[in-house]
């Protein structure tokens, strides 16, 4: 049987903590992946026409790149090199509300006494530009309001259907997951394992191929794109493969040539 294989399958990738040896993330929704091997080349030239005589290679560089069609809070925290925090957090809310019966009903209860972002209310005619500001006071005075829980009472009479731009902070739910970009944290170094399929030329069957990268540095640069049209965002994972601390190994491919799966 031929020992030649075609490759047309994605890799499932496991990201492992290099210290504890425990898995941190499993990427099973990748769109593409690639391994690139490069080296610096130095050539000795000489003689008539100055032809190449001897070639030296060095400074070997290996990279492993993949793109995922999905992202999770854990994945985002690894890409950004930040700490994932689960729990109640102060989060901003901006709402466009219409008045009814001299009142506005907010979607959440604002945090009180928050000087960094107090409850602000503006009338708006175009749903985007703040116009007249309403301040906390008494509804017997123009352009003032009172609030009880989520209900904002406006001066009477306020026409039903008037539009207001409202912003404030609220407490998130208990399962809120917070990922922070900081100035001094970067993505870490991990061990990678991968699983893919190689198809044999002779029998047309797929054979398991496993990839092991003992040490790889995840690069921090990432672009998060939000768009209302076109293809959905993809999330790149870019690793610089490093030499193992115990050997010269950088990547291992294990092809189980006697165990077809189809």
Q: Structural class, from secondary structure content?
A: mainly beta
The number of E-state strands comes to 18
N-to-C CA distance: 16 Å
Radius of gyration: 29 Å
Q: Spans with pLDDT under 50 lasting ≥5 residues? A: none
* Biggest β-sheet strands, sense, barrel: 9 strands, antiparallel
SSE run: EEEEEHEEEEEEEEEEEEE
- Please report which band the strand proportion falls in: under 5%, 5-15%, 15-25%, 25-35%, 35-45% or over 45%: over 45%
CATH-defined fold name of the largest domain: Pnp Oxidase, Chain A
- Using the coordinates above, name the CATH class of the largest domain: Mainly Beta
Give the proportion of residues in helices.
Answer: under 10%
Query: How many domain regions?
Result: 2
Q: How large is the count of helical segments? A: 1
pLDDT averaged over residues: 93
CATH architecture of the largest domain: Roll
- Which shape, going by the Cα principal axes? elongated
Compile the SSE list and pairings.
Blueprint: E1 5-6, E2 12-17, E3 23-27, E4 30-45, E5 52-68, H1 73-80, E6 85-86, E7 90-98, E8 103-105, E9 120-123, E10 133-136, E11 144-148, E12 151-153, E13 163-171, E14 177-178, E15 189-200, E16 206-218, E17 235-241, E18 252-255
Parallel strand pairs: 10-11
Antiparallel strand pairs: 1-15, 2-3, 2-15, 4-5, 5-17, 6-14, 7-13, 8-12, 9-10, 9-13, 11-12, 15-16, 16-17, 16-18
């Amino acid at each position: 049987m031929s020992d030649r294989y075609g490759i047309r399958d994605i890799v499932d990738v496991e990201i492992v903590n290099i210290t504890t040896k425990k898995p941190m993330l499993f990427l099973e929704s990748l769109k593409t992946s690639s391994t690139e091997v490069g080296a610096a080349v130095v050539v000795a030239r000489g003689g008539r026409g100055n032809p190449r005589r001897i070639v030296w290679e060095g400074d070997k560089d290996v990279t492993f790149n993949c793109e995922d069609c999905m992202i999770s809070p854990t994945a985002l925290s690894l890409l950004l090199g930040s700490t994932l925090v689960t729990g109640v957090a102060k989060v901003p809310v901006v709402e466009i509300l219409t008045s009814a019966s001299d009142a506005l009903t907010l979607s959440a209860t604002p945090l009180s006494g928050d000087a960094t972002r107090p409850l602000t209310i503006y009338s708006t005619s175009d749903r985007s530009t703040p116009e007249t500001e309403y301040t906390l006071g008494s509804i017997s005075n123009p352009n003032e309001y009172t609030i009880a829980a989520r209900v904002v009472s406006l001066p009477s009479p306020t026409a039903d259907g008037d539009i207001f731009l409202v912003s404030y902070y609220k407490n998130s739910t208990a399962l809120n997951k917070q990922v922070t970009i900081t100035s001094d944290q970067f993505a870490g170094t991990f061990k990678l394992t991968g699983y893919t399929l190689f198809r044999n030329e002779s029998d047309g069957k797929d054979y398991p191929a496993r990839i092991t990268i003992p040490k790889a540095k995840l690069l921090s640069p990432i672009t998060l794109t939000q768009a209302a049209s076109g293809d959905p965002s993809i999330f790149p994972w870019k690793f610089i493969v490093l030499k193992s601390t115990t050997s010269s190994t950088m990547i291992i491919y294990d092809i189980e040539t006697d165990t077809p799966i189809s």
